[in-house]
């Protein structure tokens, strides 16, 4: 009963003034009326046109639409005895347009009924039984499904009949292949025989018949075509559809219907070169009447199709350019453009309005496009789609004729290029403000044609100034349209090769969403079982949905590197890596085979201090084979050096190259934001240094010019590749090898440096010059995780490193020190680049590049990744937005449900389980970044470690080196890469793959003995100083061990390393962590573009809010109680509330509901409870938004503390009494009245006391209400009033925001901050620290007499042995309270302090990972029958021993 009453709500005589009209509401209102009534009124800004009783209404030149009249809504399945009247005429009274101006067609909106529940056809089900996974005929299954949804079951079966030749060809190919294709052949043979022997039904267009086998949409199309008099000579029609399969089947179905005079032909793309003449034949036949109806895809919309009397858009396109092309295909005045729109579809209505509501600039540009083929630069406001609308087989043109974005997989085809260039030019023009660009955007030149042939055209594209791209011309073509397409395509190639074509300009991939097949939304259209959908749902979802807890997911790798490797090109695209304001770091160049997307600067950390790394792109250049080989070997040299492992990679598989760069390159001074200009770089690469490092790892020092030789140098005291290295600081001419090592702890117990060498260096035979000066050095640190703000440089080793080295015994490393410092950052830099490539890929696949990438990056980063940012703050915002969105949705769509039912329904939408299953269905988990960078396990893509040589080879190599002499273990002549060895040819060698040197005469595999710290294990010096990072074949050797005994642990360690590396490709994620990422992504979307962008992101993440596509849909669907079913307000209530909240109510009876308590008899269904449910969600969101912006640097834990305090019943009750809302609450309960009066009196006393105490203590007043429990009705009425304002404003948040800013925000800012959060700031401080994950903090107390406090106590807040704040007071309690307040102030002022100081979270995760590894060891030992108790004891030790914890996080699970 109440639902029937409420359905009168929005339009039944409100006493108050109507809500203010929204922008652009005139045309929208007409479409809304058409949607609800089945017709549209004429436009209000032109005279009403003459409308035929069957044909429908026309659209004026101003662009306002009318729908077909109700008479035409009833389908007529038989041909009428009386000929239907044709669509004709123009708007009455409309002035005749000039000859030079555009002549607009009349536009008609045709409404068709939504399809009823469909079922898969019997043929479809039978074929699915043969090919259950759609493995052999997926293209045809997909086409049949789309045709079923768009045209009906009869047309769906025709897809298979048309596919018979393709299936026959596939079966023949499978038959000729090997035995592995036998199953495919059998399946295809059975499918073919089924299709051949199937009895196909004829189309039935009778809606009253149970045998109706077409959709209402196709039925309406037939009616429209019949009303257009297709038998008349003047009729020419064009129907634009979305998919190629639909176009082909539609033509066949129309031929079967045998409509009088209708002669359809299909125009779909395949190859722009070979199909041109067939297109001309179709155009010629259309012109002379051989065909009078062309069914075309979007591919053909800009072709020069002869003008038509009727153009029908069977599918709506999200592009104003497509809209303009469709108008251009008509004959102008006297012709019709018909838009088919589903009745009741808000999505269709929105898309129609977006495309046809043109601003003045866009309208002027589109008019120019229609009049002048040369065109002008479009305005940046032009709406164009990123969806290419290709057929489901993606075969409308040659796949080779496309430009593929390696980052997102998007492709630019020839027919897409014109729109891409339009958007690019608009963006460049808007960004640079280019008013003087010539008006001719496309310039056409006629090419003289041979005799008896058509003239050809060449189009030249002239871009606006800025990107420094010269005009680009296309290939000669027979039509202007094709010439423009070719020129735009060539321009796209030029922009792409220059790195100027950003991924956001590429069309979205039409077949994949994060690796899964794109399927239509069939939830409300198709009636099918779970078995029918087996191929449309991810196979992992069903299993995952039955599980909870923690699951392992493969880590997604960026598709960019895989796509770049497959390119064979001599062109390299440089990206310069430079460390800002750090002169000791030299620039490096990252060289890729395809342009790397533009990226912002990176932030790394060195002992808590930020390092800004700029990534600037340079101009592309070509390299010859020799230079490419040098770059290849230089890259391997760099990576071998920074990880101290024998890495190798095939030249064909290396993802990128590295090169040094001169610091004088002028591009370093260019601003990071300048992305259009790229400076030449090839001449600033020191190619001599590249070749030197490629050939040798070290050179001899020039003792005659020692200072010059040590400039920007790294030196090593061993002639081997994998050893300790040192930065050369200076030459100490005051010291010689005979000097006493006073300040060098390593040699402290020796009389001189020379004596140390005699004792420690094996085979040392003395020095040639004992008077040579020494070199003061500093050790080169190993690779560290520079992404973690809490990362620290490793402590000094227990064995002292060298401080001075003797030049005669040293070699100079061939990579300069400044370059090597930057190279040591590469693991962190490349990890961050990989992350950003994944973010770009995800943004394109799901969100159409609508979310800012740095926000999306934070949203998919878990705290366990130990990065500068994580999802926690965004998750808090996204959680509030989801509650806000789902509450409004449920309030609107369930007008008769009470508050409890709404709560339960909301939980089903936004619960962690629901969010997790949504994320699983779209494959989100592999994109989540949950693992920290582990430098010891990092390696570049496709790089592998050379396995250890066999023991005999090591013995031979050791003997060979002994013959070379004791002083130099190996020569630095070449970079050692493996050579081809036939397996079994030589027992002393190992097969290590083909030679990677490109015929440059590189040496064979390095077969040195097993080393410790990169030094010969037999050398006693190997045991001195700090250890460097060990390679997989570097193990600790016991004295006296035989080669076989050495080989066994080496092999075991190699196996362990491989296992760890494999595990690095797997990450463990909890279901809640995945749900949190979903919320964080929605929060990132809100930060980027507000409520609309967040709504679109929620839809992309499959949040269950169907039928809501934009925020204004809520107002159109809302139902509210009319005035006669709510309580009557007391006189003056409306005015009093409006004065309090600072906002005028458009619907006062909604306010009456907000003030009505459930105790009033007879109004239980219209009390404030539903509004309180809505207002609670709105208030939560407003509060989170406020503190998110106000406290931009606070941790999520601190934000949660603040939010809980602000929305608590105690705080809202105090606010209600403070502003006087309690005086207007309507109820019938004496007990409630007494409670409110008692509470208000006690609250006033507490407030006065707190204000007086705060004044004495010189602080802000705190939460005086904290110990008082208010009647719940007081907090409820605050929330219900917020909900009432929101509804009264037609679901606009402006009024609620005004109330928040006027009443709540000042109250919160005054009373609820970290310093005033409670009367116990020490408790607040500890909660904040624990929210950060910090566990090492304390408040120390000691006696500290002062003049003010003779018996004073000093209290210090100590975090990780650092005193954050301190205070002296008369008592310890008072001093600790003051110290906690000062500490909270310090944290607010320096939010990065805890991140720089605390690494408790990383250690905790590392401990969990270590324990997990030991548990895995336990399982392994149990299988081998080992001592289980020993391992369990080890696990117990780990649980109780914090100091024994490993320092790097391993395979942790973020739960």
Describe the largest sheet. 7 strands, parallel
The whole-number mean of residue pLDDT values reads: 77
What is the oligomeric state here? single chain
Helix content: 40-55%
Radius of gyration: 38 Å
End-to-end separation? 47 Å
How many β-strand stretches?
36
Globally, the shape reads flat
Uncertain regions: pLDDT < 50 for 5+ in a row?
1-26, 36-101, 389-397, 434-438, 511-524, 528-547, 958-974, 976-1051, 1434-1455
**Number of helix segments?**
44
Label the structural class.
alpha+beta
Short description:
By secondary structure, this protein is of the alpha+beta class.
Describe this structure in words.
It is a single chain. The chain is an alpha+beta fold and 1455 residues long. Helices cover 40% and strands 11% of the residues. It has 44 helices and 36 strands. The protein has a seven-stranded parallel beta sheet, with helices on both faces. Strands 16, 17, 18, 19, 20 and 22 form a six-stranded antiparallel beta sheet that branches. A six-stranded antiparallel beta sheet has the order 23-28-24-25-26-27. The longest helix has 30 residues, at 1071-1100. The N terminus and C terminus are likely disordered.
